[in-house]
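Write out the 3D structure for:
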Amino acid sequence: MIRPSSLASPHAPAGPGVIRVASVPSGHVYVRHCADGRQPDGVVRLADPRPNGAPSDSRQWWPPVMLDPAWVRAHHTEFDLFHLHFGFDAQTPAQLAELVRTLKEFRKPLVYTVHDLRNPHQADPAPHDAALDVLIPAADHLFTLTPGAAGEIARRWNRHATVVPHPHVVEEPRLSAPRPEHEGFRVGLHAKSLRPNMALLPVLEVLTAAVGELPDAVLQVNLHREAADPGAHAHAPEVVAELRALAAAGRIVLREHDYFDDDQLWDYLSSLDLSVLPYAFGTHSGWLEACHDLGTAVAVPTCGYYAEQRACLRYGLSLADGLHAGSLRAAVREAYRTRPQWRADAADRTAERARVAEAHRAVYQELLA
C-alpha cells in the first residue's frame, strides 16, 4: 500500500463540460499528446502523484500511485473516469483485480489503451499475459494503436478495441526544423540498456557485414553506460567487451553514454539515415514514431505490429523464427540505395493529434452519458 504522503490530490480543475481523467500515467509524452495541442478539448488529466522517494522536482511518474485502490478511495470524487496506459509491470493480477473492483465500487469507468501485447521489458510473457487477462475483459473501453493489435485482442479476448494512431512524439519547433546535413550513410543500432527483447548481437553481426560492404557507410552503436557498471541491473560485461572489440577493430563506431534527454535523442536520431530496431518481441514503438517525426528511416522486425504504425523497412526477426539475415541485409541495401524520405508533415501530425484527442473525448462522453 502507498503511504499517506502519496495520497495528495493531483488537482484537476473542474468546470461545466470538463471531463476529469485519472490517467496512468499523465506526464508521459504519448498521453500528453492525446490532448489537442491547439486548443482546450474539454478533457483534464490529473497530474501524476509523486511516488514516495521521488525528488520533489522530478517528473518521475513510476511506480504509479494511482494504481493503488487506496488512492482511488481517497480521490474518487476528483475524477470521472480512469484511463490506464502502462506502468503496471509490478502489479500482480490480484492487485489489478482489486483496482478494478474499487473502480466499479465508485462507478468509475475503466479505459485501457493496449500499448503492449507482449511486454518488451519482461523475458517471460506470463506475468504480462496474466495482467492482460484481468484488464482487457474488465475495461469499459479499449484503445490500441494498430489494426493488427486490435485483431489479436479480438482473437484472444473477444473484445473490440478502437484503433487510434500514435500521436507525434517530437514537438515544435523541432518537428518542422530541416534535417541536418551530413556526409556518407549512417546506420544506427541503439542498444539502450539491453532490454530483454533485444537480439542485439545476432543483429549486430549481420549489420557489421552489410554496412561494411557499402561505400561511405558507418555503423554506429549506442549503449547506456550502466551496461558496463557492475553495480547496475543492466550490467552485461560480455556484450560490452564484444562491442568494444568491434570498435577497436574499426568495424563500428561505439558511443557509450547516459540516458539521452529529449534534445540529445532528437539530435542522435536526426544524425542517422537508418535506425534498426533489434527487437525479437514487442508490439508498438514510440522510437519509430520519433524517427517518423524527424525523417529517419527505420528497419523494423516482423514480430509485433511495428510495420503497421508508419512507413518503414521490414526484416525477419521473432522469437519463433529467429533472425532472417538476408532480409536484414536487403533492408540496409534498400535504405542505402533509395534514401527514403518518410518524414511526417508537421501540419498533418498536428491534425492527426486533434483527431486522436477527439476520439478519446467521444469515448469518455459516451461512457459518462
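Confidence is low (pLDDT under 50) at residues 1-9.
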